[in-house]
UniProtKB/TrEMBL annotation:
Superkingdom of the source species: Eukaryota
InterPro entries assigned to the protein according to its UniProt record, in alphabetical order: KIF6/9_C (IPR056524), Kinesin-like_fam (IPR027640), Kinesin_motor_CS (IPR019821), Kinesin_motor_dom (IPR001752), Kinesin_motor_dom_sf (IPR036961), P-loop_NTPase (IPR027417)
GO biological process: microtubule-based movement
Localization: Cytoplasm, Cytoskeleton, Flagellum axoneme
Taxonomic placement: Eukaryota, Metazoa, Chordata, Craniata, Vertebrata
Organism (species): Sander lucioperca (Pike-perch)
Statement: the UniProt record of this protein carries the keyword Metal-binding: no
Protein name: Kinesin-like protein
GO cellular component: microtubule
Amino acid sequence: MKAHSSRVGVFVRIRPTAHFSQDLIECLPDGQTVNIHHRKDSRKPQDSRKSQLSSWSFQLAGILQDVSQEELYARVCRRVVLGALDGYNGTLMCFGQTGAGKTYTMTGSTESYKQRGIIPRALQEVFQEMAKRTDYAFSVHLSYLEIYNEILVDLLSSLQDLPQLSPRGMVVVEEPGRGVFIRGLSLHPVHSEEEALNLLFEGEMNRIIGSHALNRNSSRSHCIFTVHIESRSRTLSVAKYVTSKLNLVDLAGSERLGKTGSEGQMFKEAMYINKSLSFLEQAILALADRRRDHVPFRQSKLTHALKDSLGGNCNTVLVANIYGEAAQIEETLSTLRFASRMMCVRTNPAVNEHMDPAAQIKKLQKDVHMLKEELSFYNTLVNRPRVMYEPLSEAQLAEIHSQVQRYLKGSLEEISIISIRQVQAVFAQFKLAVQEQEQKVKAQLCQTFNLMEKDQSAYTAAIKEWDTRGSTEDVEALRPSSTKANTKMSKDKQSQSKRQGEGSPVSKKRLESASKSKLNFVQMPEREQESQEPDTESQDTQESQPPGNEPFNPDSTPSKAEAFEDFKVGRGSKINRILKENKAVLLERRSLLRQLTEEINDVKREIDCTTATIQQHLTRGGQGQYLVMEGEPVLQEPDGTSLMQLRELKALYRQRYEVLRDVKAEVNYCQHLVDQCRVRLLSEFENWYKKSFLVPEEELDITIDRTLEQGEDNQRLLPDNSSSESFYNARYRTLKRRTALSFTPVQRNSSARSGQRRLPPILPVS
Ligand SMILES: Nc1ncnc2c1ncn2[C@@H]1O[C@H](COP(=O)(O)OP(=O)(O)OP(=O)(O)O)[C@@H](O)[C@H]1O
C-alpha cells in the first residue's frame, strides 16, 4: 500500500499541581505552543548579574493541561490504535522526568476505571473495533517487555508453561519481512479485552514483584507493551492479510545524575537510563536529519527494540510528561527540547501487507478448477466433448509420437488437433524427429567423408550441399571426386581408354553441366571475365567442386601429371575446352597475320621495283628507250603509268598495313586470353588437387613442377623453380593489368615458351 509522509505527533502533558508556575511556563491559547522562561542561575537569586532570564518557545502537536485520561486518549491515541487495526504499525510513547506522570498516562490507575491509562483504553478500543469489523478475522497477541539496566525482561513469562528463558537468553533481532522483534519474548494470544487486561495487569504485577525481589525501583526501567494484530478478510477470498504492532512504551524517568545525587544501585540505574535515553535522543536526531543515512539504533537495547517503532512506516506519538512547578523547570526544559526534536522526525506509515502462500495456492487451485468447469461447459455447448485439459499421459504422448512418425512417412494425412497441450506435444515430436534426422545425416556424412573433428569446414560445406539438395539420398552423390578419382585412377591404370571416354561420375556431371552452359567462342565466358578477382573465382570453384577431403597419403595419391590429365577431362574440362578453342583462334589469327605480313612485304618489294624504274627513266631523260630487265628488253614508257602504279602500290601497302595492325592486336588479345585460360586451369587444378589429396606444401611444390613439365603439349608454362605460388600470384596480377590495358601491344617472346613459329618482321615503309 502506498505510504504517506507524516510527522511524529508530539504532545505535552502537564502534571496537575497546585503550584503551577505561570511565570515560567506559558501555554499559549493556540493549544500547541508553550513558552518557557528560565532564569539561568535561578538557584542563586542574590547574584543578579548572573540571573538573566531566557525564553524558549516550543511548538508541538498539542499542549494537554488538566485534561482527563479519556480526552488524552481521544486526542492522542485513538487514531494510532485504529490505524493498527488497518495494518499500520503504531507507537505511543511517554517520556519525561520521574514522577511527571508517564505511568499514569500510559497505564493509569489500575484501581479506577476512569483513571485508566492509554494501554487499557487501547485494548478496549481494539476489541470493540474488532467486534464491529465483522468482515475481518482478527487475531491478537500480547507481549510485555521490560528493559532494566540493558537487560531484557519478559514480564509475561510467568504465564508460559515453557521453561523460562534466562534474561540474557532474549535478544533483539531483525528479519526480512518480519522486522524487529525480541527472540525469546513470549507472545500471548488474547480473544477479549478482559484477557488482554489480565495480561497487562499480570505484567504490572511482575514488574513490581521483580523490582522488590531484585531490590530495584520499578520506575527505573523502560517498558514496552505490544499488541500484535493480524487481520484477514472473511469475505474476499484473497491470500493477502495485514499485520501490525502497537507499541505502548513507558520510558524510565529522565533526570540528570547530578540532580538526584544518587549513589550505588540508584546511580547505576540512573547511569543506564541516561545512557539509553541519550542514545534514544541520538537516534531521534539522526532520524530527524534526512541527510543522514545511518541511524544508530543498535547502541542500546531500547533503541534497537524500537527501531521500527520510532520512524519508518509507523504512526508514532510521543507524550512528553512535565511538571508544572518552577523547581523542575530545567528538567521540563530538557524534556521539551527532546520533544521538539522528536517533532522533526518524519515517518512514512504503510500497511504491512503479506501474501499467504498456502492461501494463494488454495485460491489458484480453486480458480483452475472453476476455469476447467467453465471450459467443459463451453465445450459441451459447441459440441466438443473430447477436449482434455489435464497433462498428457504416457500413452497419449506415445500415440502423438506414432502419429507424427506416420505423418512424416506419409501414411497419415493429417494430425487432428484438439488441445493446446497436444499442439505442443506434436511440435516437440517434430523437433525430435528433425534432431534425429540431423544426427543420422551427420553420422552418414562422417562415415562417407571420414571427417575428423578438426575438419569442420569440410563438414559445413557438406551439410550446405546436402541442404541445397534437400535429401539424404543424395549423400552418395556428394562423394568427393578425389575419392572417386582415387578409385578411378587405380582403375585407370588398368583401363586408360575408358577414362578418356567416360571420366568419373562427378566429372561426367561437370561435363554435362558445362555442355549445357553457354560458351563464348573466343572471349572468356562471363564468369571468367569476372574472375579477374581471385576470390570470386575460388568461391565459384568451391561451390562447384565436391567438398570431400581425405588425409594425405603419399601411397594412394596419384601423381600430379595423372591428376592433371584427369582434371582436364573431368573437373576442369570446361576451362580446358575454352583454352583449346582460344588457342585455335589464336593460331588462326597468327596464320592470318603471317599471310598479311608476307602480302605487305610483296607490295613493298613491288614499290621498290617501280620506284627504281622511274628513277632510271628520269636519269636517262630520253623517250621510247628500252631497258633490259631480267634479260628482256622492256620499253620504258615516258608517260605517268609507272607513277600511277607506284601510287596504287603505296595505297595498297597502307591499306594492308592497317589490316595487319588490327590482326596483330587481335593476336595479342587472343594470346592474352589463352594465357588467362592456362593460369585459370592450373590454378583451379591446384585448388582441386590440394583439397582432394591434402598435399603438404613442400610436396605440392615438387609435384607442381613435375606436372607442369608434363603439361599440355609439353609446354613449359612455369619456370623450373619451386616458388610456384609466388609465380602464380605475380602472373595473375600481370594478367589483370594487361586486361586493363586491352589491346596495347605487349613485348613478349612467346616463341620461346609456346613453340610457335616466329612472326616475320614487318618491313618499314619509307
Ligand atoms: N495527570 C495526572 N492526573 C492525576 N494524577 C497524576 C497525573 N500525572 C501523574 N499523576 C500522579 O503522579 C504520580 C507519579 O506519576 P507516575 O508514576 O505516573 O510518574 P512517572 O513519570 O511514571 O514516574 P516514574 O518515572 O517514576 O515511573 C502518581 O501518583 C500519579 O497518580
